[in-house]
Design a protein that fits this description.
6 strands, 3 domains, homodimer, MgtE N-terminal fold, elongated, 3-stranded mixed beta sheet, mainly alpha, CBS-domain
Chain lengths: ~450, ~450
């Protein structure tokens, strides 16, 4: 396999072919290209070229291409397609992907698109999915699955399965339900192939099957599937009826999005932006956090103003304020990040008190080592041992407090049901800046007098 | 399905049962508990209790439990098992998991353990896997797969497959190889079931199959599998021979580990530590980054010392140094984080020059808004318009430079083949602190005179 590589030459070549309306060449060129790669190409084209290509290619391929496109490009293309054309694309998609696309369409054309879908069962399944919250197992699941009734014989089962499997790209498990549609268990393909055809399903199925409720959060589903190494999980409604299934490829996306979000939050960026978004979008995502930093800085300046009388005799104290603020921020981010990860991975044990004591010891140890280095440096630099001592002792105090705030804040937020990831970034840095400067000057003043 | 919940009562109960040697109760209690959950329980026990439980339960279950345990607990348990007992556990594991465990054993007992494995083919496969770098596709892959020769008929194929499938937990694809063992394509189960038994495989197989080389980096494999929504991918050696396959559950782990690592790096923590590691381990992971911050702070202090003559007339300049340092740090982290993510997701387009110009405009816009707010505040506070202007203009300059450094650094590191994620955390903050303070005082001095 030679991996696909998106090059400027390839894009230019395709643009040329589109301009010259060389449909045959385009077909040949793109025939063996994976839909995910075609999507990458189309992301580079302008709206008209993209629409032209989507209309040219078979809807078997273009429907999958649509699911992989950047949001804005997809929106532009769908705007240029008729309801009938959109319905044609949805026809070729799994219900979950089709529902995701429909959810993006303007309300006024949704009904028209749905009425144009020829396979009425497919249409009904898609409409069913539209009812679920995007941020739930119901919003993630697809209707495509293979299910058999516990009262069937193996023979009926095999026959029915053949028909059902037509619509299911990958059969992970055969789910067994009762007459009410409630999930009872699963069946392995192996067992099915090695059992007499007159046997009833209820005598051979495996009654143990993991499942999730329709209202479960995607992050929880991801946790369950990755913990138990599942490739698909059935979804049941409030009374236990099998309503869909979620496959691991959707979960991989959930995991990646969650990681990206946490990373951005820690970096002080909101809204899930990308590097290629416009300056306005990026400003909206970045400015509020910077503003928070500004408020913190102004707070620190105000505190320093309160200690202004020290400046004539101990100017050096003021030189170290960026260091104090940086250390308070860094320690806060370190300790909160480790708690946030522990919470996300469910592997935080022991009481809050134990955590705080541990972080205090850890911060004190780190603080002591750093303070000794700093003591040595300041003493050498300015020759005043009392000042050097005052700065170093303050540093230890600042680091310990920063560690405690960094540990406590995410635990507190988590207990209140707020995403603790919010605590790792600018919030911790800003509050620790202010506390840090305050503690630093207070202790220095106590040691040095005015 | 009632989800498993690890409670202190459950752990206490199990500890009690172990102490009283109530083997029967332990068996009954844990029989229906998933191995991943048993691992969670064992992580809470002490070494003797854990070893007792592992020896008590069937190796079908305990082998999987071993793969899920915390590293230190697993090491402790394996220390208490004989070579024969360890071999028994490995026997029940897939080759990739078995190889991972063997790689953790002390050298002197590896050979003994391998010689105790009864299934010699299994042993050979495990030894084969030991040769591959842990950080490569070869290090991730398992030997368990279903492969058929293109010269076989469908009938032979089905017979051979039955035998092979015994050892393969989940059959994702049937891989087709030639007489040399080179990967030629794949076969769908559906096709196999619907084709006449005398047909040769070479006439029905699908010649298109994605694969990765043994030396491919795990991150690349993850990218390919998630881009193409694959649940398994075959691995080929340098001359194209099929040597193993990687399944999506291993890739989910790769993606999560990578995300955790990037997150920790951005937070200034190295070595992939967890909240429950010892204070020494945590100090080793955190102290170097704090030390870097200390050096930055000392640098900033030294720079401020160079501007000491300004302190008598413009003390307020010194009050805003934590603000300047914080803004420089925040902007640097924001812009580098967005570039790091773009690089990781391969969706960074356009030239480096374009990026820098965009970030410059973005930073200038954000800087201008923030500077206006700050201007207003400082003017009101101290009543000196020139000082307020000097501080505000410096802030804009600092933000723009911080944005450029934040954008350029990860791109530069990436081009040199260094993981750009290293640039998001303390490195950017520290260097931006120093540059920020220097720029701030230089500009302020130019505007205000001494």
């Amino acid at each position: 396999m030679t991996p696909f590589k998106l090059t400027e030459e390839l894009v230019a070549h395709i643009e040329q072919l589109i301009e010259n309306r060389q449909d045959g060449e385009l077909h040949t060129l793109l025939e063996d290209v994976h839909y995910a790669d075609v999507a990458e190409i189309i992301n580079e084209l302008d709206e008209d070229q993209a629409t032209y290509l989507i209309k040219l290619l078979d809807s078997d391929k273009t429907s999958d291409v649509l699911t992989e496109l950047d949001d804005d490009i997809r929106e532009a293309i769908l705007n240029n397609l008729s309801a009938k054309e959109i319905a044609g694309e949805l026809e070729a998609l799994d219900t979950d992907d089709a529902a995701d696309i429909i959810a993006e369409l303007p309300n006024e054309i949704v009904q028209q698109v749905i009425s144009e879908i020829e396979d009425r069962e497919h249409a009904r399944d898609i409409v069913d999915l539209l009812r679920y919250d995007e941020n739930s197992a119901g919003g993630l699941m697809a209707k495509e699955l293979v299910k058999v009734n516990e009262n069937w014989t193996v023979l009926t089962c095999v026959k029915e399965m053949r028909a059902q499997a037509e619509n299911v790209t990958r059969v992970h498990s055969i789910y067994v339900v009762d007459d009410e549609g409630k999930l009872k268990g699963r069946l392995s393909l192996k067992d099915l192939l090695t059992t007499a055809t007159t046997t009833h399903i209820k005598d051979v199925y495996i009654p143990k099957v993991d499942s999730v409720g329709v209202n479960e959060k995607p992050e929880e589903v991801a946790k369950i599937m990755s913990k138990y190494d599942l490739e698909a999980i059935p979804v049941v409604d409030e009374i236990g009826r099998l309503v869909g299934r979620i496959t691991i490829d959707d979960i991989v996306d959930v995991i990646k999005e969650e990681a990206d979000r946490d990373y951005q939050m820690a970096a002080g960026i909101s809204q899930g932006v990308e590097a290629d978004d416009s300056i306005w979008v990026l400003t909206r995502a970045r400015l509020p956090w910077l503003f928070l930093g500004l408020v913190g800085g102004v707070g620190a300046a105000a505190i320093m103003g309160g200690f202004e009388e020290m400046i004539s005799r101990h100017a050096i104290l003021f030189f170290f304020t960026p260091l104090i603020a940086a250390m308070a921020g860094n320690v806060g981010v370190q300790s909160s990040a480790i708690i946030v990860q522990g919470l996300a991975n469910d592997d935080l044990k022991g009481s809050v008190g134990q955590r705080l004591v541990k972080e205090m010891l850890l911060a004190a140890l780190n603080g002591l080592i750093l303070a000794l280095v700093l003591l040595f440096f300041t003493w050498l630099w300015k020759g005043s041992f009392p000042t050097a001592i005052a700065i170093s002792i303050s540093l230890i105090a600042v680091i310990v407090v920063a560690g405690i705030i960094g540990t406590f804040t995410p635990i507190f937020l988590h207990k209140r049901g707020i995403d603790p990831a919010i605590a790792t970034g600018p919030f911790i840095t800003t509050s620790n800046d202010i506390f840090g400067i305050l503690i630093y000057f207070t202790i220095a003043k106590l040691i040095l007098g005015i």
